[in-house]
Amino acid sequence: MSVQIRNNVHISGAGPVTMVFAHGFGCDQTMWRYLTPAFAERFRIVTFDLVGSGGSDLAAYDRERYASLHGHAADLLEILDECAAGPVVFVGHSVGAMIGLLATIEAPQRFMAQVMVGPSPCFIDDGDYRGGFSRADIDELLETMEANYLGWSSSLAPAIMGAPGSPHLRDELTSRFCRNDPDIAKHFARVTFLSDHRQDVPRSQVPALILQCSDDLIAPLQVGDWLHRHLPVSTLTVIENVGHCPHMSAPTESSRAIDAFLAQALR
Fold first, then answer.
1. Is residue 203 within 8 Å of 105, Cβ to Cβ?
2. SS3 call for 265
């Protein structure tokens, strides 16, 4: 099976440097459509779906391969081999950002910069580290999802989106969550919310922008501060926005923050 079919890869835009976009949990590449136009005239744009999401080949979802985020990171590197010449600018949302970080550790020569939108290396509080959730919180979230996936999606997706002035965005994310294959989504949720990549963070030497919202249920400000302290080459930018998806609810502010970062990182 080709990588393009497996991950539903789409290529657009024009420019000497390729930007690669990886979505977060429960989403697909269409969630980038508010942000990518800001870069399409200057960069070659590659979007794709994580296996098990969106228009990817669901038959390719191997629970052993994707028992950790490293399986998705390996997929990302295969996409770069097929679709990108030279180092890329990687833009990842939430768990997609951590998948990208793992790929930068494995093959740093393939990346010139990474943009991490609402990233979290670990969702669970641990000593002085504040991930935003207790282990009991995460266990309850996963148990509720297991018992009633559609009900879980309908209640949690609007809270994840935030965007109080944009009900259509909350409806869109809810619809996207509900269209996912429940069995795959449950497995990926367990991998996502129980992962802990704090020890990997200092190993990434690729310049990074940590882009956070001022009010984010999933990735609170303490997480961004922690990442900024532990990522060797990083910039932290906080935009005034409610929710976990600023590339949808605040695309102009997000693109400005990315442009400011790239102006420094790519000079």
1. yes
2. helix
**Is 143 a member of any domain?**
no
Listed in sequence order, the DSSP H helices in the chain are: 3-6, 69-83, 95-106, 135-147, 149-161, 167-179, 182-194, 221-230, 246-249, 251-265
CATH assignment at residue 117? 3.40.50.1820
> What is the residue range of 209's domain?
3-122+196-265
| Domain assignment of residue 189, yes or no | no
What would the pLDDT profile of 185-217 be if each residue is shown by its tens digit?
A: 999 999 999 999 999 999 999 999 999 999 999
Question: In the structure encoding, which two tokens stand for residue 113, read together?
Answer: 């910069």
Residues with catalytic roles: 94, 216, 244
176 vs 234: CA distance, rounded Å = 32
Condensed to tens digits (0 to 9), the pLDDT of residues 143-159 reads 999 999 989 888 888 88
Which residues neighbour 138 within 8 Å (Cβ) at sequence distance 6 or greater?
A: 123, 124, 193, 194
Residue 139 phi/psi, 5-degree rounding, is: -60, -40
Instruction: Give domain status of residue 177, yes or no.
Output: no
Structural domain contains residue 23: yes
0.90 exceeded by the pTM? yes
Query: Maximum distance among all alpha carbons in the chain?
Result: 51
| Contact present, 98 and 210 (Cβ < 8 Å) | no
- Number of domains into which the chain is organized: 1
Tally helices (H) and strands (E) across the chain: 10, 7
